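It is worth pausing here to work through a concrete case rather than discussing structure prediction in the abstract. The textbook approach is simple: state the sequence, then state the predicted structure, then interpret. We follow exactly that order.
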Amino acid sequence: MRNNAAVAIHPTAQGFETAAGDYERARPDYPEEARRWLAERLDLRPGRKVVDIAAGTGKLTRVLAATGADVVAVEPVAGMRARLASALPDVELLDGVAETIPLRDASVDAATVGQAFHWFDGDRALPEIHRVTREGGRLAIVYNRRPLEHPLQGALEAILSPHRGQTPAYPDGRWRDAFARTRLWAPVEETELPHLQLLDREGVVARAASTSFVADLPSDRRAEVLAQVRALVKGHPEPIQLPYVCELFLWQRLSPAQ
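Step two, the predicted structure:
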């Protein structure tokens, strides 16, 4: 087991400490078909063990637990861990990061990452996930992508993106670079699933507030951003439909000699 004390999370990700409540309330869950896909591809069932890395408030952890597999959730932000512990008291929950996972070698059958791999140092995280995963194990990465061609999603992005700065982002695709370099994981499959979230107007505001770089803004600037979102959805009939595309990626663990 490794000590994670030397690895710090990205400074902007600290915004999730105060945004955990908004994250739990307003971030989308995952479609039922994603649960079936993960259960089949990762062979999740009673007697199998899976680690959910950067588990947040447990959005993906819930999906994994529903398969009957033994789930270990790893999450570095205390506020997020508190929400997960409240929602899933029977799930083992550890303070840790992807680059130094607090688990023994070859202790899990599979690993998952939901909405988070872009935050990792991929060149350190992939060997570490390899270390804790048993021979023949698999890694699944799941993202709910916002289709910006949708009018409301596009308008939200126009409000939020000027505040992103240097915050890591999934859509830029840089998170894939570590997979292109590694010899420890081989790509198996990718798929996309349609997904729809229903929110009231304040739920859409909370969705914006759950964004790390918005939560990390000074309080006056944060209030201005949320006021813009509130004005955007004013008058929208409820429930408001926010479409997503659930993207799933699967890799197979290789032996170092392969």
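Step three, interpretation. The beta strands are 49-53, 70-74, 92-94, 108-114, 133-145, 185-199, 240-253. The chain has a mean pLDDT of 94.
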